[in-house]
Amino acid sequence: MSRVGTVVLGPAGAGKTTFCNSLVTHMQQIGRNCHIVNLDPAAEAKKYEFTVDIRDLISLEDVMEELNLGPNGGLIYCFEFLLKNLDWLEEEIGDYNDEFLIIDCPGQIELYTHIPVFPTIINHLTRNMNFQLCCTYLMESTFVIDKSKFFSGTLSAMSTMLLLELPHINILSKVDLIKDQYSKKKLKQFLNPDPLLLEDGNDDNLLANKKFDRLNKLIANMIDEFGMVQYLPLNVNDSNSLTTILSYIDDVTQWSENQEPKDPVDEGLVPDEEEEFE
Ligand SMILES: Nc1nc2c(ncn2[C@@H]2O[C@H](COP(=O)(O)OP(=O)(O)OP(=O)(O)O)[C@@H](O)[C@H]2O)c(=O)[nH]1
């Protein structure tokens, strides 16, 4: 029996929910069972059939209205409430075995880089509930092809990795928005970036400031040391891209189904061609 899953994290608007929905559709098409767990108490109306939804326990809208809190204070209140009710989460997730959880999280990265909310939830899922989890951390490709933003995004990803202590996969989302040849070339550079590329460039005014030269090099070396140097491109409309990402997730969570993946035709997920032409 394997209880596995991925926690989908990243800054606001990075494409986490879109990725969760595409991954679940992709997994259903290849005959694998999976469920979406929504841990965003501020999520808009249901976009997808969530198996577990924190809004059934507490929603940001209610908290802001009833306790007169702002959005950030309200969000922290929601998670403190969840931490006091982890048995609710356990009951909702139930006894799923041989299935896969895709956990959609809020974009307020301070929840997993600054305060111990997510580490506690992750600890509960891994230690008490026996889940093998990994983190898929999304950053927008249009954002990171700017060198200084690449480094600031990578440092956020790294602090998430250090705080959550999970196997970590970096993903560059929205690659379909990279259209011109120059940006495509730049994107390629950031898929397996040489952290020392900081040293050579003068195309970025911020990093051209010689006063910060030594600091920049030290940061680049630290990123290299922590192995934060591989990024998988995500194109939600391309099944090859989803297949690659899923194979990385399977690898780091050591997913092993006791049996062959189910046949999507047998499962009625895609039309049987013969039937169609009869
Ligand atoms: N072109 C393009 N747009 C995308 C892609 N993924 C997401 N978007 C758009 O980006 C916006 C944000 O996407 P979401 O999936 O809601 O992002 P999120 O990270 O879940 O957002 P928060 O939960 O608010 O942090 C939406 O308008 C999406 O339609 C993508 O792969 N390509």
> Approximately what portion of the residues adopt beta-strand conformation?
5-15%
> What is the mean pLDDT?
82
Give the beta-strand count. Answer: 7
Largest sheet: 7 strands, parallel
Q: Radius of gyration in whole Å, from Cα?
A: 20 Å
CATH architecture of the largest domain, by name, is 3-Layer(aba) Sandwich
Instruction: Give the fraction of residues assigned to helices.
Output: 40-55%
Bound compounds, each kind once, are:
guanosine-5'-triphosphate
N- to C-terminal distance = 40 Å
The DSSP helix count reads 14
CATH superfamily of the largest domain: P-loop containing nucleotide triphosphate hydrolases
Question: What is the string of helix and strand elements?
Answer: EHEEHHHEHHEHHEHHHHEHH
What is the topology, as strand order, of the major beta sheet? 3-2-4-1-5-6-7
What is the domain total for the residues?
Answer: 2
Low-pLDDT regions: 258-264, 273-278
GO molecular function: GTP binding; GTPase activity
Function: Small GTPase required for proper nuclear import of RNA polymerase II and III (RNAPII and RNAPIII). May act at an RNAP assembly step prior to nuclear import.
Subunit structure: Binds to RNA polymerase II (RNAPII).
Keywords: GTP-binding, Hydrolase, Nucleotide-binding
